[in-house]
Structure formats: C-alpha cells, structure tokens
Specification:
The protein is an all-alpha fold and 83 residues long. It has one domain: Orthogonal Bundle (Non-ribosomal Peptide Synthetase Peptidyl Carrier Protein, Chain A). The protein contains four helices and no strands. Helix 1 packs across helix 2 and helix 1 crosses helix 4.
C-alpha cells in the first residue's frame, strides 16, 4: 500500500519537474499555485499529464480541492484505490 503511494509520488514529482522551466525544490507540502506559480491552465495541463501517465480521470471538483502536492498524491491514491 505504501509502495503505491511512493510510486504515485515519484510519477507526480517527475512529471512536475519535467514541466517546470527552472529546477525547484519540491515536497509534499509544496503549494501548487503559491509555491510553483502555476496558473490554472498550467495546473490543468499538469493534471492531464498525470491522468495520462496513471490511467485515471480526476474530476474537476477534486482538482478544486487540491492545494499541495501531498493533496494531489492523496487524491490520485484514492482514485486508484476505487478503480
């Protein structure tokens, strides 16, 4: 169970690092908008890439609840568990 969470974390972090123009230190406490400066379009692009890589669909209401990378990891984990 913890391994799946670690795998999801790695995929999310790798995807984010590849889409950011500059190297930035990230953690589960990193705030997606405030710390990374992503606008709504960049957030949607990022989430769509995560969806493609993990073969899931994140509902818009769930995206609205996500503030940190930890929130995103938990949301994706929940979606994978219910699939």
């Amino acid at each position: 169970m913890a391994n799946l969470t670690g795998d999801i974390r790695d995929i999310i972090f790798d995807t984010l690092r590849s889409s950011l123009p500059n190297a930035v230190e990230i953690s589960e406490q990193t705030h997606i908008v405030d710390d990374l400066g992503l606008d709504s379009v960049a957030v949607m692009d990022f989430v769509m890439e995560i969806e493609d890589r993990l073969d899931i669909s994140v509902p818009l209401d769930k995206i609205a609840e996500v503030e940190t990378l930890g929130d995103l990891i938990a949301t994706v984990r929940s979606l994978k568990d219910s699939a």
